[in-house]
Design goal:
331 residues; 9 helices; globular; alpha+beta; single chain
Length: 331
């Protein structure tokens, strides 16, 4: 999962996040509302194994502000169309600033719209009044109170408050048409293929001697969406997909002359002609940078046609610099 809106990002937790999660999970103040006021007492190695052994039903997520991790979220598929979620803002200087409600809304909207979820549940301790206020403001409905249903780390009995949310109940704390970047799902193939058609057409107009207007292979799109360390990030406003970026992790060639580097290769980036000049290209590039950084890339690389001045200006504004020229001689 990858969601990016405004300055907020929700992404899958990766093995490289294990030291950070270990620090949070061993902090009693962070874990108090989860019932562990003394911390978990876990290790980086144990968390790394947990992340490597993750399954498709349980998803641990890292939340970031301007690229800096501030906490975690999770969602677990309880039934085919029901998910349980949770959130912890772990950095104290980022708590009680309204980030939690936006992040929960981002996750819930994506689960309803793209992950086949029709009902979302969560619970909180009875004493956590602030959390209950946030949930109810977003549209969650209290479904029950379970008195003295579990014991925390110290043996103290705790009472849980249960909540449920249906799609029509979700109240967004932001404009629904605010641009969002998310990872593509198989249902996006048709919309991505249409944007690819406009991309190939534009490239053909720029260099017709080398590039032809055509359709992208749907199986290729599905392969990128579903394979590990490859992704298509889509830019969405409301329910409409307006652009995408295709990125994958790779490594420098195994030749002695190359300094070894893991890096991200941005193979394609496109925005529908009707949606250009609205900052979506910049938003997609920012999201790709965050995606690449999470996977441990040392840098992000891309290519552009030499006469595509609009794309070149965008890339230069976003900090890209030319490092190689490709020459071609007709024979």
């Amino acid at each position: 999962m990858y969601l990016h809106q405004n300055t907020l990002t929700i992404r899958d937790a990766l093995p490289a996040d294990a030291p950070l999660l270990c620090r949070w999970w061993n902090n009693g103040k962070v874990m108090e509302h989860a019932g562990f006021p003394q911390g978990l007492g876990t290790s980086v190695e144990k968390i790394t194994r947990q992340l490597l052994d993750a399954n498709d039903r349980t998803h641990l997520l890292i939340i970031e502000i301007e690229g800096l991790p501030i906490g975690e979220m999770c969602w677990r598929r309880e039934e085919s169309d029901c998910a349980e979620i949770g959130i912890k803002i772990c950095e104290s200087d980022r708590q009680e600033k309204g980030f939690g409600s936006r992040l929960i809304a981002m996750l819930c909207r994506d689960l309803f719209a793209n992950r086949g979820i029709a009902r979302i549940t969560l619970d909180t301790m009875l004493e956590n009044q602030r959390a209950q206020h946030v949930y109810e403001k977003l549209g969650f409905v209290k479904t029950g109170v379970r008195e003295n249903c579990w014991r925390d780390q110290t043996g103290k009995l705790r009472t849980a408050v249960d909540y449920q949310l249906l799609p029509q109940q979700l109240r967004l704390p932001f404009d629904e048409t605010e641009p969002l970047v998310r990872d593509a799902v198989p249902a996006d193939r048709k919309a991505i293929a249409e944007i690819y058609r406009t991309l190939f057409e534009a490239m053909s107009n720029l260099q017709p001697q080398y590039i032809q207007a055509t359709e992208q292979d749907p199986d290729f799109i599905l392969k990128i969406i579903t394979e590990n360390k490859k992704d298509i990030l889509v830019a969405q406003c409301g329910a409409q997909l307006l652009g995408f970026a295709l990125v994958l992790m790779t490594h420098t060639p195994p030749y002695r002359c190359f300094v070894p580097h893991p890096y991200a290769d941005l193979l394609d980036l496109a925005v529908l002609p009707s949606a250009r000049e609205k900052g979506l290209g910049t938003l997609l590039l920012q999201a790709v940078k965050g995606w690449a950084k999470a996977y441990g890339a040392d840098y992000l690389e891309l290519g552009a046609l030499s006469n595509n001045q609009g794309a070149i200006r965008l890339y230069e504004r976003e900090g890209f610099c030319e490092c190689m020229k490709t020459f071609r001689a007709s024979l």
